[in-house]
């Protein structure tokens, strides 16, 4: 019998039935609840990461358009600028170099890095607390 257990065989003799679940504790109810909670927490954590990544992407696209001398009157440039300015928070005018393009590059890049870092930290917290 010990040899069979070493091979991964069960020590329970054949013909012995599994115990029936009691009425007070239905089979698998706790397991399904834990799976549902884990799935919801995972979804929320991914949502936070995606939101931070999307915000950073908008800011980076704005930086690329500014550095590439895109036409500021173009609807795409205007839309990216209007989206990126409020998302850059206090980083928008953190550094004020003489070259305005350098200011956009440094300040908005810091804002993008901030959003990526914050979304990563919040996502990890959601997973740990969930």
Give a description of the structure.
67% of the residues lie in helices and 0% in strands. The protein is mostly helical and 130 residues long. The protein has a domain at 49-130. Helix 2 (29-67) crosses helix 3 and helix 2 runs antiparallel to helix 4. The chain is elongated and about 85 Å long. The model has no long low-confidence stretch (mean pLDDT 86). The chain crosses the membrane at residues 47-67, 105-126.
Name the poorly predicted regions.
Answer: none
Radius of gyration, whole Å = 27 Å
| Shape type | elongated
Separation of termini? 43 Å
Mean pLDDT, as a whole number? Answer: 86
**Strand tally:** 0
Tell me about the largest β-sheet: none
Going by helix content, strand content and strand pairing, the class is: mainly alpha
- State the assembly state of the protein chains: single chain
What order do the SSEs take from the amino end to the carboxyl end, as H and E?
HHHH
Which percent bin holds the helix content? 55-70%
Give the helix tally: 4
State which percent range the strand residues make up: under 5%
